[in-house]
Amino acid sequence: MKNHSLKNTSRRQFMQHSAAVSGAFVLGMYLPLASDAALGAGSAPALANAWVRITPDNQITLICARSEMGQDVYTSMPALIAEELNLPLSMVKVEIAGVAPVYINALLGGQITGGSTSVREAFDKLRTAGAATRSVLVQAAANRWSVSVDQCKALNGKVTGPAGKSATFGELAADAAKLPLPEKPVLKSPANFMVIGKQSMRRLDTPAKVAGKAVFGIDVKIPGMAIASLAQCPVIGGTPLTVDSSEAIKVSGVIKVVQISDGVAVLAKDFYAARKGRDALKITWNEGPGAIISNAGMRKQLEAGLSKPGAVIKAVGDASANMGKGNTLSAQYFMPYLAHSTMEPVNCSADFANGKCRIIGPVQFQQGSQAVAAAATGLKTEDVTVETTFLGGGFGRKLELDFVRQAAEISKAAGMPVKLLWTKEDDITHDFYRPMSVHHMDATLTADGKLSTLKAKMVSQSVTARAFPVFVKDGNDPFMTEGSANLTYDIPNLEVRNVIEDAGIRVGYWRSVSNTLNAFAVESFMDEAAKAAGKDPVAFRLAALNKEPRATAVLKLAVQKSGYKSNSKYFGVAQMECYGTYSACVIELDPVAASTKVKKITFVSDCGIAVHPDQAKAQLTGGILYGLGAALYDEITIEAGRVQQNNFNDYPSIRMNQAPVVEVHLVASQEKPGGLGEVGVPLVAPALVNAIAATTGHRIRELPIKV
């Protein structure tokens, strides 16, 4: 996951435009993500790199290059282009991009939707595309009317000039396509924004979703398509040894049975028949080495990893020399495996025919999907197309490529288009789980109760070592450090270490990645340190945030909005910086409930410029409830290689009647946008256990709470 910088380069490399193609004006931006030789001949034509398409009838289409899974990129990213075009969103259509180098996420190094990077990465890039488009449209109008550019103005899909002259963008498109694009178009000042930051902005995907017209992966239809249900080994990583499909093929509606590398697929005219046929299969499995894996063994292995030095990922002062020079305290924390548990089950459609393969489905990693489908079918990547549907939840699960590969393999083996549809049980038992982790914390407090020294060690599996091993250097996985390397506290002597310990189960990026793991340990320990120092938890934190004005501001505002008072009994607090956004969370428990019950969650974020404020609050609210459900109820346990949970009955999501009051406040800011899609998740668990400790005196150091 490379972090590519946008360096100065030639106009051809920075922006390209095409001549009119069938009367349409197409603009694309080509970012210097790799050399032309590395990209390959013809891999960056303007038509493939389009962000804006304008036809003579003035239909304006904006391209969204990220996957829409509820987080609002279908609206917020086109809004960046529309802002500089001076267009209301009501005038535009949106299309989800195909696979092309221009759509690479410069913060992650691939065409990836994840890491709360979509708007952060696109904020300047897409506004530049819009401004460049506006510039040539205005220039085309000025040329047509023989007037100066200063006399012309683009607004609401047309350019107006002196003496009542007017032309739509569509009427000017062909002329505009012939003009050279400005390398550095002037961007609007935030003070002049007409789209960005406006509460009145409406989601562009809402009408289609309300009307049932939006196409999710589960809705895809291809002529001649069969529905596939895949039998997979109960132990992840196992493969079929022998298969008896004689009874399965007798099931009414079953078309055929095919074996692929990691399972046996039953193809039928509908899912009911496919699943019934799958249940009739008789398979013996080679369960592989995973059959001996158990939670107890994996936890023991991680705890033993605490004795290893690991990699130092942050060091300030001399923590070892200063540890013990004052009052000391230690604590150990544990976090379980978690499933992504999206509402839409894993699915993917594939059509392998005539030396080509078409992939249609809910994916978060388009280039990876193209590559894995090519490998599965023996095709070149250019012979594989990827069409991204709406996602019924992603949370990182659909960054994985197993289901894309399976669909491609099944289609090739069956010789027909297929829609692979997992059950919820398949989904829970064959996930790439959020890693289990163990954290050990040591601290020294000065005589006046200040935190002078902190040592933190996290032991966990590394998702990156599996998914992108080239980015793990000397035992340092940069994604394991989220929530620890970016501490906002000013601690004179600090040492943060990570130990990578492969426990044998496959793990994946889960919503907010390691921020949830590290925030739980850090913010729980800060509360314990405050108590040891005899300080109010908020005052203790504020004393260590003297160099972080944004962190200080959100914590103070959260305290004010929540009604927290010094050493309040039923309240718990937590704060952090996460994906460039500063947040604080205050949880209030219900004092009259028979057991632990959250009454209210107050959450404050400084996310810089909020492109879509209403949706920003919605995203934070969704993350908060996702994090609350995980903290209260959820864990994945494994015995003899078999995941013990399989559906919402034993791996629940929080229900409406269980949801507390959630108040989200945004701090007005002119900073560059920070992330939002994952930011609401990490602070809930530590704020909750801190509230429980303040109320009952009982300190919880491992999750889930299981109330």
Could you describe the 3D structure shown?
- The chain is an alpha+beta fold and 707 residues long.
- 28% of the residues lie in helices and 23% in strands.
- The protein is built from 18 helices and 28 strands.
- The strands form 7 sheets. The protein has a 7-stranded mixed β-sheet.
- The protein starts with 10 loop residues before the first helix and ends in an 11-residue tail after the last helix.
- Residues 1-49 have low confidence and may be disordered.
Summarize the structure.
With 707 residues, this protein is of the alpha+beta class. It is globular, with a radius of gyration of 27 Å.
Helix content: 25-40%
Largest sheet: 7 strands, mixed
Radius of gyration: 27 Å
Counting H and I runs of at least 4 residues, what is the number of helices? 18
Strand content: 15-25%
Give the low-confidence spans: 1-49
Short key terms for the protein model shown above:
707 residues, alpha+beta, 28% helix
How do the helices and strands line up, and which of them pair or pack?
Elements (H helix, E strand, L loop, with lengths): L10 H4 E3 L7 E5 L6 H4 L10 E5 L5 E5 L8 H13 L6 E5 L21 H28 L7 E3 L2 E3 L5 E3 H9 L28 H5 L15 E7 L6 E6 L9 E7 L2 E6 L2 H9 L2 E5 L8 H10 L6 E6 L2 H4 L4 E9 L11 E7 L2 E6 L4 H12 L6 E5 L13 H13 L3 E4 L2 H6 L7 E9 L5 E10 L2 H5 L25 E8 L14 H19 L3 H7 L5 H14 L8 E8 L2 E9 L8 E9 L6 H21 L4 E2 L2 E2 L17 E6 L17 H13 L11
Helix pairs in contact: 3-4, 4-5, 10-11, 14-18
